[in-house]
Amino acid sequence: MADRPGSGASARDPWQEIRARMDDRQAAYRRGWLRAPIGEPAHQPGGEELTSDLNLACRLHLQGEEALQREIRHTFNEWTSVRGRVLAKAWSFADKLADTCDDRWLRLGLAAVSIDDSGTDFRDTYVTLGALYIGAVRCGMDPGPYFEEAAEISSGVSYVE
């Protein structure tokens, strides 16, 4: 398993940049939601910049110290405009893992699940974790240490009774 790159201090500046862009997206989403005709959903942000920000947030979550990891999880929970997008990102990482058998995709997928923090639906979280687990096993990896690493950087709060 690869060592964690970087340090929490170096991860803070890029996180603040992502946070500013995401706050802007959230504000635009809320304005769109208020202006949308009744019964029609507000426009959800997307595009390459959002994809890039989600990728970077997952890398920062892996690199950061506990306080930054907690802040990332908490802040993503507040951004309703991108709720579910982080978990969807985990699926794209699972696809890349299946294609390449490169463990970085497993680590990034688990980071995405950690950031989502069961913010969408815990059942979706379980299915996503299963896809990452099976992908790792099919690639000949022992997923246990990766899942343990993800557990260390994740919230200890249980959302299922």
Overall strand count: 0
Low-confidence stretches: 1-9
The SSE string, one letter per element, is: HHHHHHH
Percent of residues in helices comes to over 70%
Shape: globular
Count of the domains = 1
Q: Please give the alpha-carbon distance between the first and last residues.
A: 32 Å
Beta strand %: under 5%
Question: Number of DSSP helices?
Answer: 7
Give the averaged pLDDT, no decimals. Answer: 86
Q: Radius of gyration from the CA trace? A: 16 Å
Structure, explained:
This protein is mainly alpha-helical and 161 residues long. The protein has one domain (8-152). It has 7 helices and no strands. It has helices spanning 8-35, 48-63, 66-78, 85-100, 103-116, 122-138, 144-152. Helix 1 runs antiparallel to helix 2 (48-63) and helix 5 (103-116) packs antiparallel against helix 6. The chain is globular, with a radius of gyration of 16 Å. The termini are far apart. The model is unreliable at 1-9 (pLDDT under 50).
Write a short abstract of this structure.
With 161 residues, the chain is an all-alpha fold. The chain has one domain (8-152).
What are the key terms here?
mainly alpha; disordered N terminus; globular; single chain; 7 helices
Topology summary:
Layout: H1 8-35, H2 48-63, H3 66-78, H4 85-100, H5 103-116, H6 122-138, H7 144-152
Helix pairs in contact: 1-2, 1-3, 2-5, 4-5, 4-6, 5-6, 5-7
